[in-house]
Amino acid sequence: EVQLVEFGGGLVQPGGSLRFSCAASGFTLTNYAMNWVRQAPGKGFEWVSGISSDGSNIKYIDSVKGRFTASRDSAKNTLYLQMNNLKPEDTAVYYCARSPSAWWASGLDYWGKGTLVTVSL
Q: Which of 9, 39, 99, 120 could form a disulfide with 115 if both were Cys (CB 3.0 to 4.6 A apart)?
């Protein structure tokens, strides 16, 4: 059974940092592209970052470039998102999600339950 479990949400002040983990089970992380998606309160889903199956291509939306870094640990079958210089507009529920192939443009087939980040004084 494919499972994705996120860890690391919480309350942080503007300018602060958080690191998310997404533990994957039921499949091998390096066989699929992985993604981070967020949903701000009252808004739709927003794709944040994607990492190709071989890890050679990582893409971000413009609003997080230079602040967020996606990575993974193949040995732990875990995906990470390091978020620095957080802004109030980063407040959202963050999800890790799997793509059904090696490339993130192929869509999303499995999602974690999400973890809430609140950026506020």
A: 9
